[in-house]
Amino acid sequence: MLAAAQIKNAKTESIRIEGNSEACKTLIEKAGSKKGEAALDWNTNTKKAALTYNSQKTSKDEVLKRVALAGFDNEMYLAPTDVYQALSPECQYKGNIQTSRQADNGSKETDHSKMDHAAMNHSTAEHTESKLESLYKNYFTIKDALIKGDSKAVTAGAANLKSGIAAIKMGELLPKEHDVWMMVMKDLEKQAATLQSSKGLEKQRIAFMTLSEQIYKLIKATDPAYTVYYNHCPMFNDSKGANWLSKEKAIQNPYYGSQMLTCGSTKETIK
């Protein structure tokens, strides 16, 4: 583990991280520690960790995201199910969770009651609108603006998307949405900011290409009440190709607009 004494602008906090062995300790500290930024010292018996971090370079939130993405629940984030299940048996501190999570149709285990996710509403009602729906609406608005070649509308849509991302409360997401959200959240924030600051349609379309891949991952986890078409343009990006999502079956290419409006094909239909 990195020495806490090496951390400048140091702030130290005590945090709870789930785990059950020395093997867990190694993985937890490796995930949370980062040279010059953060040092994590986790106690196997108490499940408490001393976190020392450079408050000008990182935050408790960032560190605990990394720990969760390594497979360990903590006081702010739950580990993605697939990551937890990939841990070695000695590190699976909750046992085999697949059965318990399926049995309650995705509701959160009671031993997580003190976490940030306590307010999760895991309703299984059909077609309940996802808390991510506002992001999808912003994405489709941006897509339509690119088709029309309206750069100003793209910038405005990107600003709305950026605000929407910041407003998402992870505790309100369904379990499968939560897992994917943790994976793509930072990339989405970066891509929305890039799209907002990009000048001209050419740069905006390049930024939209990257954004589309992250939105695709999210919408696959959402089971939207409407059909979504995952389309491909073979010519954009120096003929490497680029994808986009649409609610309309007819191809309308956002990468070329009126120049080649119907260029492309549907790769996948998401229902």
Automatic annotation (TrEMBL):
Q: Which Pfam families match?
A: DUF3347
* Every DUF3347 domain range: 136-224
UniProt-recorded Gene Ontology molecular function terms: metal ion binding
- Which SUPFAM superfamilies does UniProt cross-reference here? HMA, heavy metal-associated domain (SSF55008)
Protein name per its UniProtKB record: Protein of uncharacterized function (DUF3347)
> Which organism encodes this protein?
Sphingobacterium spiritivorum
